[in-house]
Amino acid sequence: MTSTPSRTPLALYALTIGAFGIGVTEFVIMGLLLQVSGDLKVSVPAAGLLMTGYALGVFVGAPLLTIATRALPKKTTLLVLMAIFTLGNLACAFAPTYELLMAARILTALAHGTFFGVGAVVATGLVAPEKKASAIAIMFTGLTLATLMGVPFGAWLGLQFGWRSTFLAVTAIGVAALIVLALLVPAVKSTEPLGRLRDEFAVLKRPQVLLGLAMTVLGFGGVFAIFTY
Question: Does pTM surpass 0.90?
Fold first, then answer.
């Protein structure tokens, strides 16, 4: 999946915009807990569970959507995932109850893990072999910028105009990401044969893989456990 040199940076930045939007919607709820709590008449700890619900959606959605979309072209998969993300945030913005907001958060999160997995594959296919690491880094810059700039701005927006305005803003980011992904990411079909589904799970039998997963769970679990505080 190699694009022309002039177009490659733009395609990578399209992935970066998608990563930015996903990063904002994941973490911005931290700065909106009091507003959500007051508006939906729930306790602050209950509002904090909206982050837990998102994490649950990522946990469930990553393997399920990866399996469900494995036969689709990578560009189509990215567009489907970004559509889920956008609709989920729109549902968050208009959710009339806590329960529906939680459901919308989980829906939004379904696209999270698969987007980054497929996005990384697409990013490396856009550049020469020696630039694959840089391509992935460019895409994940969106997640970094979301943490440094997007989340604080989203929290400020929520304080000024209500928490729903923040989710409307993230919905707009999702629409923008859909447009640039559709326009800039090349539609190239994979020439590699589709492997058997059971072979995809066979890797979980390797101790090194299980150890890596355990380190990831414990490491990120320790970091994210204090986020809502």
Answer: no
